[in-house]
Amino acid sequence: MKYQIQQSFYNFKKNGDAVLQPVGKYLSTKEFAALTSAKKAKCVPVGKNPNLTIDQAYELVTAYCEGISADEIVSEFLFTHPEFSAAQGVHCQLRIIAGRDNTNPQDGGLDNPGAALESAMMSVDSVRFGVDIDAKLDALLATI
Questions:
Q1: How far apart are CA 126 and CA 100, in angstroms?
Q2: Rounded CA gap, 93 and 115, in Å?
Q3: 101 by DSSP, 3-state: which?
Q4: Strand 43-46 to strand 2-5: parallel, antiparallel, or no bridges (unpaired)?
Q5: For residues 48 and 87, which has the higher predicted lDDT (pLDDT)?
Q6: d(Cα 122, Cα 116) in Å, to the nearest integer?
Q7: DSSP secondary structure letter of residue 29
Q8: How far apart are CA 123 and CA 83, in angstroms?
Q9: Beta carbons within 8 Å of 44's beta carbon, 6+ residues apart
Q10: How far apart are the C-alpha atoms of 27 and 45, rounded to whole Å?
């Protein structure tokens, strides 16, 4: 498991030199175990998000299609689904949705959806999120 520093602190080398540990730095389990309890309190565990369920994926795709900002979607999603701890993972899912969005061809996004996300995109709007070239061209022409 990794830990991320949330409040900076100093570690001291054997020769007495102070080394600033900045906010955002990741620590291994071994590094974390060597910290004092006061320094451990300034760190949080960083885990991997669980896989999306079909309902969670549908929720993300629907919110994306409604034009809600990514930051609002992420904060609401993390509030309603506390088992997800990494906001970056939810942002990544939104980038995958954006990568498949035929109405915004300038946004390259990402293109590696999981099964639940793929299914949700197809059930919400198969033309908008389909990979069919004709559908992509039709969507592009519709925006012009």
A1: 10
A2: 12
A3: coil
A4: antiparallel
A5: 87
A6: 10
A7: H
A8: 25
A9: 3, 4, 6
A10: 9
CA distance 100 to 113: 9
Which structure tokens are listed for 143? 């925006």
Instruction: Identify any residues that bridge with 45 across adjacent strands, giving them in sequence order.
Output: 3
Distance from C-alpha of 97 to C-alpha of 68, rounded to nearest angstrom: 13
**pLDDT tens, position by position, 43-80:** 877 766 667 888 999 999 999 999 999 999 999 998 88
Phi, psi of 20 (to 5 degrees): -70, 130
Average pLDDT score over residue span 68-94 = 86
CB-neighbour burial class of residue 136 (10 A; exposed 0-12, middle 13-18, buried 19+): middle
Q: What whole-number distance in Å separates Cα of residue 81 and Cα of residue 89? A: 13
Which pTM was predicted? 0.58
